[in-house]
Amino acid sequence: MADKRFLDAIHDALHEEMARDPSTVILGEDVGRKGGVFGVTDGLYEAFGEARVIDTPLAESCIVGVAIGMSVNGLRPIAEIQFADFIHPAFDQILSEAARMRYRSRNGFECPMVIRTPYGGGVHGALYHSQSIEAFYAHIPGLKVVVPSTPADAKGLLKSAVRDHDPVLYLEHKKMYRSVRGDVSDGDFTVPIGPAAVRRPGRDLSIFAYGLMLHESLGAAELLAREGIEAEVVDVRTLRPLDTKTILESVARTSRALIVHEDNRFGGFGAEIAATIAEEGFRSLDAPPTRLGGPEVPAVPFSAPIEEWFMITADKIAAAARTLVAY
């Protein structure tokens, strides 16, 4: 067991999977000699060479398209999109090719590939370096979407993603790279794609979150506990497939649900969780399923005070929880 930063856990998973399986390759912008803009792939070029750690042109559709070709020809590519904001030129490749490969070939072809990309605000990245994109891609059948919240999950879920036989979108909140630490087991281990995790038990309401918002939710739970409100905090961590069983069991214990995500509230992924609770857990509810999401502006602002206004914090979550408990 070792204390690791979120970034280091991801790096270790990449290194170990490349050492374990020679068919695993990494490709993306500046992933080679530079080691990635955040340093996640630092040292992998020197360890595995330019044939397996491949610097690409600044062309996201090309990066994903090449990875698809690699995957159907016996390799296990890990394609890095430098910022999640840049992924949209590859949308058609992801939707029409990668996610539908098994379906369109009548199970004749697999598409074992991972698309890694940093997302989210709070780092003064402004308009084109702060987006949350999960709602767009979780809508696509055939594509798994993973958002780890802890270093242990970052490593274990990435290993599972690399070994999966279908495409996985793996989202890393960039603010967590160096700010979040935690214990990571030594040796080889995986965390299964799918199950959610209860990070804090409670009786008065359930808070569902993922990524950076999981940590803000845990902070809110600490604030609420001082007031005698015990919040159960559930780390969703896999958006597709969604663990509805754990979600509904939590609501059955607490009778209230608050869903938190950084992305815009309207049409955000929280709506799927809320709808699931309303449809399948209605009899457990003492209050409406409630969403707390980003405000209705096109992107995270650059200005520090306005960015702070945009971001969801522990204080904002606690305020929403108080309202819900008092309903």
Automatic annotation (TrEMBL):
Gene Ontology terms, MF aspect: oxidoreductase activity
Named cofactor requirement(s): thiamine diphosphate
Pfam families membership: Transket_pyr (PF02779), Transketolase_C (PF02780)
Domain of life: Bacteria
PANTHER family linked: PYRUVATE DEHYDROGENASE E1 COMPONENT BETA SUBUNIT, PYRUVATE DEHYDROGENASE E1 COMPONENT SUBUNIT BETA
Keyword Oxidoreductase: yes
Protein name listed in UniProt: Alpha-ketoacid dehydrogenase subunit beta
Domain Transketolase-like pyrimidine-binding: 4-179
Lineage, opening ranks: Bacteria, Bacillati, Candidatus Sysuimicrobiota, Candidatus Sysuimicrobiia, Candidatus Sysuimicrobiales
Gene3D superfamilies for the chain: 3.40.50.920, 3.40.50.970
NCBIfam families from the UniProt entry: PRK09212.1 (NF006667)
Species of the source: Candidatus Segetimicrobium genomatis
UniProt keywords, alphabetically: Oxidoreductase, Thiamine pyrophosphate
